[in-house]
Design brief:
- The complex is a heterodimer of chains A (about 120) and B (about 110).
- By secondary structure, chain A is an all-beta fold.
- Chain A is globular, with a radius of gyration of 13 Å.
- Chain B is mostly beta strands.
- Chain B is globular.
- Classes of the chains: A mainly beta (about 120), B mainly beta (about 110).
- Chains A and B meet through strand 5, strand 9 and strand 10 of A and strand 5 and strand 10 of B.
């Protein structure tokens, strides 16, 4: 079984709809991240969580919110989706401490299309 | 603004040749530089990292070189194989970031021809 799973893998929705992307991990990691990937722009950090009680904004948090329901679960919500949120979304995890930050484990991604 | 970038968006090499993927950075406060590989349809995967006080680090078929004078990072892949075809991202970790935030570059698409 995959260590980091994302659901759904693909989603097409309409402008104005509320969307939730979910991420679960079995690695036992404290840290979880949500990234957005657009062609030619690399990966941009949306939100990250140090632990269950810690949520931090990343580079592009506007229009998004997150919830860390448990150590293993981190969900990303688009309260009112807009077309420029069409992108590939990745969840990632990492262990805490020292060099462990450098190796983030990514899920398979969710391709979101907002019409 | 974005501090991590790449010189070339695409690179094509023949199987068996060596590949060199380049990356420029501007944040002198970064304490680690990291390379990730993303195969088609998958999430990025860690390859290798290098601490800012090092010039070179070798892994299995890969070598990372860091030139702090010109703020340049490169990933060398020896005897490139078809399975190396992927997008390669460099990333940097800010020394001041206690949460291990990484800043990714835009990526280089490596294509390996038979």
């Amino acid at each position: 079984d995959a260590d980091v799973t994302q659901t759904p893998r693909n989603r097409i929705t309409k402008t104005g709809k509320r969307i939730m992307l979910e991420c679960s991990q079995t690695k036992g990691h404290d840290r979880m991240y949500w990234y957005r990937q657009d062609p030619g722009l690399g990966l941009r950090l949306i939100y990250y969580s140090f632990d269950v009680k810690d949520i931090n904004k990343g580079e592009i948090s506007d229009g998004y919110s997150v919830s860390r329901q448990a150590q293993a679960k981190f969900s990303l919500s688009l309260e009112s989706a807009i077309p420029n949120q069409t992108a590939l979304y990745f969840c990632a995890t990492s262990s805490s401490g020292g060099l462990s930050y450098n190796e983030q484990f990514f899920g398979p991604g969710t391709r979101l299309t907002v019409l | 603004g974005e501090s991590v970038g790449l010189h070339l968006p695409t690179l094509s090499v023949q199987e068996g040749d060596n590949s060199i993927i380049n990356c420029a950075y501007s944040n002198s406060a970064s304490d680690y530089f990291i390379w990730y590989k993303q195969e088609s349809g998958k999430g990025p995967q860690f390859i290798i990292d290098i601490r800012s006080n090092m010039d070179k680090r070798q892994g299995q078929r890969v070598t990372v070189l860091l030139n702090k004078t010109v703020k340049h990072l490169s990933l060398q892949i020896a005897a490139t194989q078809p399975g190396d075809s992927a997008v390669y991202f460099c990333a940097e970790r800010d020394r001041g970031s206690t949460l291990g935030r990484l800043y990714f570059g835009r990526g280089t698409q490596l294509t390996v021809w038979p």
